[in-house]
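check this one:
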Amino acid sequence: MARKSARRMSSATKVRRILAIDVGGTGLKAAIVSPKGKFLSDRQRVKTPHKCRPHQMVEELSALAKVLGAYDHISIGFPGYVRNGKVITAPHFGTDTWSGFPLAAAIAKKLGAPTRLTNDADIQGLAAMKGKGLELVCTLGTGFGTAWFRDGELMPHMDLAHFTVKKKDDLDRYLGDETRKKIGHGEWNKRVAKVIAMLATVMNYDRLYLGGGNSRHVKFKLPRNVFTVSNDAGMEGSAFVWRRQHRPA
């Protein structure tokens, strides 16, 4: 019923004010954005509860939305693999608990507005990419996320974060925030540079964008086709989720 209800609401309501939610391993952020990605409210942030369970997340996001005023559509960026409004993996919250949870339908029912659930790196990419050639987005935050675009079209999501690069460390752990704090900025920057070079060989991208909260800690000179983007892209891209599944060039 929640999915059918969301479809009816979407068909009857023009997109004007989008509640953009960015779910992170350490923080939950939200703001109201326009269909062009401009902020119509202040950003709000609260700490993400440790090992947050699905229904707890719904309550936390509902409370966050209450202070932001009116909205007619909702977009959620989630740090994991998502499909058809459901969470498939949730590395930072416990996949066993989350797998199969219909987060989009639960939020639509709770907040009364049509809701779309998208991987958080994909959303950042929708705001960052130029819409020409092969573009890769990598988010550096609690973990590591990626999004892949061809001529502005969002490709099927690939969890590159779970490629193993060192012993039992996948990219998520190898470049994650816990590791950065453990090994220090200098060594962490060396790892970021190594992964950029590796991805250039494997993906042969035209442009690479580094987003997420830890992109601000990247201190070495980047290649000419590698750029950092504002962490606000995690909410700005919510506008393009509702315009269509890819942003025009």
In short: Confidence is low (pLDDT under 50) at residues 1-12, 245-249. The radius of gyration is 17 Å. The longest strand covers residues 27-33.
